[in-house]
Amino acid sequence: MAKKKNPNAVALGKLGGSKGGKIRAFKLTPEKRSEIARNAVLARWAKSKKKVQGKDMRMKPDLSSNIADKQNQAGPLSDAPASGKSAVAVAGSESATRLSEEMNSFLKQLFAQGRFLEESFGRICRDGCPREEFGTLLYVHCLVSSFREDPDHFPRDRKRLVNSGNIPKSQLKSVPRRMRAVADTIESINATILAPANDIKLAPYDAQRQIAREYLIRRYETLPGILRLYSWHLEKFSKFASRTAKRLTPGQVNAVELVRYVEDHTGSPHYEDVSNLLDQGWRVAGRRLARRRDAGEPPSTPRFLSTAGLTKLYQRWAKYVCGPRRTAGS
């Protein structure tokens, strides 16, 4: 049986304890009071952390067995962590393998069109082009270029390299003028009290947001000048691009890039060999696409894939499309 306490003694003890605690705190130095408070906080944190850890251990299930089961059920990818390969690396390897298989199938169909094509391909590879890399580039260029020649996917006005996409030419011509009009209007608004920058300037000072506010103020004040510069650049570059590369198509760009690749690796552009491979490669790739779409015969190959046409195209556009030719030491 618990001993009953004297209520008078309990009240007297509380009275003395409350006075003693205040007197002790008053006599302590500020450094000592801070140390005591810091120790108390650390003790409370340690106690609460133990409680949380104990609660988590009770609530969390054992996941090790579940992970092991899932790894055993993963199939071919279950060995990836053990060999140091992630799922992304395995997927990339599978894509590369599939591309290599498609390239070999493409070359097989290409060489079936004539022995001279296999000889042209072999000459380029013997002179310095890696077979796997050059074959993949040839396959991808032929496939993409043949696809872009399909009028169902790319109308005539979209086949050219320089085009405005879905924006009509009349609207593209009017954009610079309209942008300059908007710039004049914004500049007039910025000169009044309604300028958005004034709203930021009149806001209460906040040290954490001051840098962002100053950035916005500068952008608002320079916006008219940026719009005028953009309109001028758009107008000038549209005229230059239309005048310089008016009839250049992505297929021509692909052909120029392939000739430059061959020249960089072999020291010679091999115009005749590349022309033969591209001409028949477009036909083979076009037939492959036509079979996938259940369509008829693919469109005929363009005239620039002839030896003379490819030579003229490369000599005219190589420096614009590919930049300066690489030297042996670069």
Percent strand equals: under 5%
Question: Terminal Cα separation, in Å?
Answer: 97 Å
Structural class: mainly alpha
Low-confidence stretches: 59-65, 73-82
Radius of gyration: 38 Å
The average pLDDT score comes to 75
Taken in chain order, the helices and strands follow as HHHHHHHHHHHH
Number of helices: 12
Secondary structure tally: strands: 0
- Categorize the overall geometry: elongated
Main beta-sheet annotation: none
User: Can you give the helix content as a percent range?
Assistant: over 70%
Description:
The protein is an all-alpha fold. Among the domains are: about 105-160 and about 250-320; about 170-245, no CATH class. Helix content is about 70%, strand content about 0%. α10 crosses α12 (about 305-320). The chain is elongated, with a radius of gyration of 38 Å. The N and C termini lie far apart (about 95 Å). The model is unreliable at about 60-65 and about 75-80 (pLDDT under 50).
Could you give a short description of this structure?
The chain has 330 residues and is mostly helical. The protein has twelve helices and no strands.
What tags apply to this protein structure?
single chain; 330 residues; mainly alpha; 12 helices; 71% helix
Topology (SSEs and partners):
Elements: H1 7-27, H2 30-59, H3 64-73, H4 87-111, H5 115-126, H6 131-148, H7 169-190, H8 196-201, H9 210-244, H10 250-266, H11 271-293, H12 307-321
Helix pairs in contact: 4-6, 5-11, 6-10, 6-11, 7-9, 10-12, 11-12
